[in-house]
Write a structure and sequence with these properties.
The complex is a heterodimer of chains A (283) and B (610).
Chain A: H1 2-6, H2 8-27, H3 44-57, H4 64-86, H5 94-113, H6 119-128, E1 138-148, E2 179-184, H7 185-192, H8 194-201, E3 209-214, E4 217-227, H9 230-236, H10 238-264, H11 274-279
Antiparallel strand pairs in A: 1-2, 1-4, 3-4
Helix pairs in contact in A: 5-10, 7-8
Chain B: H1 4-17, E1 32-40, H2 46-49, H3 57-64, E2 69-70, E3 76-77, E4 86-89, H4 98-102, H5 113-116, H6 123-140, H7 149-166, E5 173-180, E6 191-195, H8 213-225, E7 230-234, H9 257-266, E8 269-274, E9 277-278, H10 314-328, E10 336-339, E11 379-380, E12 383-384, E13 397-402, H11 407-415, E14 419-422, E15 428-434, H12 447-454, E16 455-457, E17 461-464, E18 471-477, E19 485-496, E20 499-509, E21 544-550, E22 560-568, E23 571-572, H13 574-582, E24 593-594, E25 597-600, E26 603-607
Parallel strand pairs in B: 1-4, 4-5, 8-10, 17-26
Antiparallel strand pairs in B: 1-13, 2-3, 5-6, 6-7, 8-9, 11-12, 13-14, 14-25, 15-16, 15-18, 18-21, 19-20, 19-22, 22-25, 22-26, 23-24
Helix pairs in contact in B: 8-9
The chains are: A alpha+beta (283), B alpha+beta (610).
């Protein structure tokens, strides 16, 4: 026994062991009462933040009295927050879950927000999605109704009319008028029907042609201006294209992000619900 | 083949093409028709949000421009008839934007106890919270925590910004607006307030400020003095339990001249048709009007109580108006007519074949709205769908005659009542009266210019002298995407010995049929609808109807009004379309077909001596 106590190896092990013990107590935060995690730290950063918040929300001067009240309130809020987390109030809270998901979605959006499309990218996007941006042709034309299908209206053209007189006088009355300026094809289709408008779109500009049939009867038409928007269209809708491009890019990036998360967080179904595994759409 | 006449016309035209100038003359320098919806709700209305509607004002504008947006139940909705010419978003001023704010847990208002239930996953809890919130706002007014001025102001700014962003003068007009939602004891006194320009007040005057519409009118007078021009448009007189056009004021006193002037200055037009029923007339009030039973609805607001008292219909109000005028020389009911949707889906469901209901998840499917046999036990208040949603109709639209598509031009047309209502289709209606119309005016290509020159359009009031008999130009064209026209009628009201009378007179018929002078009715044109596929007879009806009409019984010293009603051939009602899609037969207790229609604003006559 005496020999053992005198043994240098024993003392070596005891000293080493003591070091481990001391280290455990000094560096293990879960053991001490006054731990780092439960301590609320108030430094200049927190104080500046409080002052800035006040300034942003209020026009008044921040007096010392009010500041101290704000600070006490802030400290209490931090305590409540720590306690809430410690007792796990954030678990299974639908609102918190929703909010966290929302934040994450915003973050992933922010990453793509920065990458504006180049001109080439935008042009390519337009070419690939042209069907979403149909050109809206505009037409300006005048017409006269020379024969009405509605037999309850009697139409006769006064052929004694002098050439320099208003051409409208050669027409039967027409509810929607005789002259159309810069109207879109959609608007004109609603009034005349697409059959008539399709026909007159093909007429040459600048002289009276016809007759052209419509639901109302027969017309003579003069196209004053045709605006086929296809070439102009790209420039006009560039802003819309940019917005749609970014929207699609964000969607695609989010889809890729979800795909990454899919490999990171695989899903397992219990035995009874194995069939669902094949049916679930993970996108 | 060109006829000789046509050839001559062509030669003349070609010969003076070289004379025509570069500048394109707009031969439509008088008025043209513009169609729009002045009553649309978005998620900022609490009774839209509560039914899962999440569409914003921006979405509503896109729908109005003919684009696709999403219904609350997740499917796309889009108008088949293309873009409207104008629109007003009229979210309820009371609690404007409050419910969306409550659903956002980061907002201070979301911390209220009353707000918690709104975020629940339990439908019943959500509805219960909603009822509590409404109750709190009604009982405490501005003292209620849910009536959060900051939240409402933010939503009002959003409304204004969206309207400004989408307004394109000459092309597409947006009006800034809101709904004043007074309904004492569930009796509807709602009005939509429309602002003429971007000059608008900081906050709308709502029923929290006062439930008395006379206070709304006084407020409108006051802001007009500050340069803010606006008008109010009442709707759903059919569910006002007689209050909308009662012959007493708010305090129960008889109406007087200053009341009439106050009312007419601020409410020149009335919305006569929308999804919650049509308020033109009722079979009990107009037993000789075979078409008086169009899309009737009589449940008071959010209740199952049925409206019973007089004062709920437009024709009856017109009659009371001229009675009062003949007695006391003022008329408090001399308003024009418009139609709207009242959609809470941010887009009007005005096409029978494309009906998506009124309010999100409440009636967004055939099953939910009770048009097909269902196992669902849907309760709305204490009734089920068959007592409410099946009675709702795919109405309506406003037609305006204006010089151009701008806020000022359209607003001024509304002020002078040169407007008409339709039950959804874009039927165009012209209605003029004058003493000097040439007999050949119907064939005159300048008919409209001459009509304005020698007569007055719809909405006008005309003084008459002994010996003067007016004639009426009555002209309508169908919506080429809807059914052909069947007939045009004139509805006349007049006063004799202090009492008013009414008469419905067919004035022109389709298919070359002639009005029977004894019965004042067109013969039946036997237009049919196939209830298995909703095809209607292609060979019946007219694209266009027109006549120059004189009233054989006109008496110059009688106060009278005349307005025009245009009827289409019958077509399928939305409920029949639902049944067809479902593969089931239309339910027996629901009308299978409707005759879509248009109503002009009246023209009034009074003896010049008064």
């Amino acid at each position: 026994m005496r020999a053992m106590i005198k043994s240098p190896l024993l003392w070596f092990f005891l000293t080493g062991g003591l070091l481990f013990v001391v280290d455990y107590f000094v560096n293990n935060p879960y053991q001490t009462k006054d731990t780092n995690q439960n301590t609320i730290y108030i430094g200049q950063g927190e104080i500046d933040k409080l002052r800035a918040q006040w300034k942003a929300q209020s026009d008044r001067q921040l007096t010392d009295e009010v500041f101290l009240k704000l600070l006490s309130s802030e400290i209490n809020q931090k305590r409540l927050y720590k306690e809430a987390l410690q007792i796990g109030l954030d678990k299974d809270d639908v609102i918190i879950r929703r909010r966290l998901i929302q934040k994450l979605r915003f973050l992933t959006a922010e990453i793509t927000e920065a990458s504006e499309p180049t001109n080439d990218e935008l042009l390519k996007y337009y070419k690939n999605n042209q069907s979403n941006y149909p050109p809206s042709d505009n037409l300006s034309f005048r017409h006269i109704l020379i024969e009405s299908l509605n037999s309850s209206i009697d139409v006769e053209i006064d052929t004694d009319v002098k050439p320099d007189v208003d051409w409208v006088n050669l027409s039967a009355p027409f509810m929607h008028g005789h002259s159309f300026v810069d109207q879109s094809i959609e608007q004109l289709n609603q009034k005349f029907g697409p059959y008539f408008i399709d026909q007159i779109k093909q007429l040459p500009v600048g002289h009276w042609s016809g007759p052209v049939d419509s639901l109302y009867g027969r017309h003579l038409v003069i196209i004053d201006r045709k605006q086929l928007q296809s070439e102009q269209l790209y420039e006009e809708i560039k802003e819309t294209l940019r917005r749609d491009f970014l929207h699609d890019k964000r969607k695609e990036n989010f889809r890729l992000y979800l795909a990454e998360l899919k490999t990171k967080y695989p899903v397992i179904f219990d035995e009874e619900n194995q069939a669902l595994k094949e049916l679930v759409n993970n996108d | 083949m060109l006829k000789p006449n046509h050839l001559i016309a062509l030669v003349f035209l070609v010969s003076f093409t070289s004379h025509s100038t570069e500048k394109m003359l707009n031969h439509n320098s008088v008025t043209q028709v513009y169609f729009g919806d002045l009553h649309v709700h978005t998620r900022n209305s609490s009774d839209a949000f509560i039914f899962n509607v999440r569409s914003t004002p921006d979405d509503a504008y896109r729908y109005a421009k003919g684009e696709k947006i999403q219904h609350a139940l997740g499917f796309p909705i889009q108008s088949k008839s293309g873009a409207l010419d104008f629109i007003a978003i009229t979210d309820h001023a009371e609690l404007l934007g409050v419910l969306p704010a409550m659903a956002d847990p980061t907002q201070p208002i979301a911390q209220l106890e009353l707000a918690e239930g709104i975020r629940s996953n339990d439908r019943a809890q959500v509805v219960k919270s909603f009822i509590n919130i409404i109750g709190d706002s009604k009982s405490k007014g501005y003292q209620s925590k849910v009536v959060d001025k900051a939240v409402m102001r933010s939503a009002w700014l959003e409304t204004i910004e969206a309207a400004e962003a989408h307004n394109q003068p000459g092309n597409f007009t947006t009006f800034i607006g809101y709904e004043y939602s007074s309904a004492p004891n569930n009796q509807n006194l709602h009005r939509n307030v429309i602002f003429k320009s971007a000059m608008v007040p900081n906050a709308p005057f709502s029923s929290i400020d006062s439930e008395n519409p006379e206070d709304l009118w006084k407020w409108l007078d006051k802001i007009r003095k500050d340069g803010i021009d606006a008008l109010a448009i009442p709707h759903n007189a059919n569910v006002s339990n007689g209050l909308m056009f009662q012959k007493l004021n708010w305090e129960g006193k008889p109406l007087n001249k200053s009341y009439a002037e106050l009312r007419m200055r601020n409410e020149p037009i009335v919305e006569v048709t929308q999804i919650k029923g049509t308020s033109e007339t009722h079979p009990l009030l107009s037993p000789n009007d075979e078409w008086a039973n169009f899309e009737l609805y009589d449940n008071l607001i959010a209740s199952t109580k049925v409206a019973t008292k007089p004062g709920g219909f437009v024709r009856e109000a017109y009659r009371h108006g001229i009675e009062i005028q003949s007695n006391a020389n003022f008329n408090p009911f001399q308003f024009g007519l418009i139609g709207s949707s009242d959609s809470h889906n941010a887009g009007g469901s005005t096409e029978e074949s494309n009906y998506h209901g009124k309010a999100g998840s409440l009636d967004g499917s055939a099953e939910l709205r009770g048009s097909i046999p269902t196992q669902l036990n849907k309760r709305f208040g204490n009734s089920d769908a068959s007592e409410t949603f099946t009675q709702w109709g795919a109405s309506g639209l406003t037609g305006v005659w204006a010089k151009e598509n701008t806020r000022s031009a359209l607003f001024e047309a509304m002020q002078r009542k040169e407007t008409f209502a339709t039950s959804g289709p874009r039927i165009s209606v012209r209605f003029f009266s004058g003493f000097d119309f040439n007999n050949s005016i119907l064939n005159d290509p300048n008919i409209v210019q001459n009509a304005y020159k020698h007569g007055h359009p719809m909405g006008a009031s005309i003084a008459t002298k002994d010996g003067q008999i007016p004639s009426f130009i009555i002209w309508a064209t169908q919506d080429i995407n809807s059914a052909p026209l069947q007939r045009i009628q004139v509805i006349k009201g007049w006063v004799k010995d202090g009492k008013s009378y009414e008469k419905v007179i067919d004035v022109v018929c389709s298919d070359d049929l002639r009005v029977n002078p004894q019965t004042n009715r067109c013969p039946n044109n036997f237009a049919k609808v196939n209830l298995e596929n909703c095809d209607f007879s292609k060979d019946k009806g007219s694209l266009e109807l027109k006549t120059l009409w004189k009233d054989k019984e006109f008496e110059f010293d009688q106060h009278a009004f005349y307005y025009v009603r245009v009827l289409e051939n019958p077509s399928c009602r939305w409920s029949t379309w639902d049944s067809i899609r479902n593969g089931s037969k239309p339910l027996a207790n629901i009308t299978a077909t409707v005759q879509e229609r248009a109503w002009s604003s009246p023209i009034w006559f009074y003896p010049a001596s008064r």
